[in-house]
What we know:
23% of the residues lie in helices and 44% in strands. It is of the alpha+beta class and 180 residues long. Strands 1, 2, 3, 4, 5, 6, 7 and 8 form an 8-stranded antiparallel beta sheet that branches. The longest helix is centred in the last third of the chain and has 28 residues, at 124-151. Mean pLDDT is 84; it is low at 160-180.
Amino acid sequence: MRLQFTGAPEISATREHVWTRLMDPQFVAGSAPGVESVETIDATQYRVISAFGVGSVKLRFTLHVELFEVIQPERAKLRARGKAPGSNVDVVAAVHLEEAAVGLVRLNWTADTDVSGTVASVGARLLEGTARRLTEQFWQDFARRVTAAEAAGGSPVPSPAAHSPPDEPPTPSTPPPAAA
């Protein structure tokens, strides 16, 4: 099953600050629902463990994430390939930063995703709706945290719900992400 999404949130920050946050895998993971850990392999490759749920199907994916075609501080592409028991996911995403106004950056993004196996079998409408909601939540939270970090002089801004498995409310016992 193929899923395609696009968006262009505007972020109140400098291009350099947005770029720095985009290239920080721990900061990015802080906005990603379900991410349990991020392990840095090298400057452009990461191993990510993420829980994902659609309806009654709950899976834990191990993803290999690679940045490529990186042109600082303007654009980059990302490829993520992952497996969970009985399911596979392949993602190619691209981001492009542009000045929208003084102190305002538009983060244009696209994501093409192929999903197969158990998670795809729950039906196109349910999977697409969940994936769209999680993607929109990610970019909204990322933009909010980047704006807040810029206003705070570059300090990281936590995301309280970022590490809860999708479709489940955050709980006080949810562990923080593992450090790389």
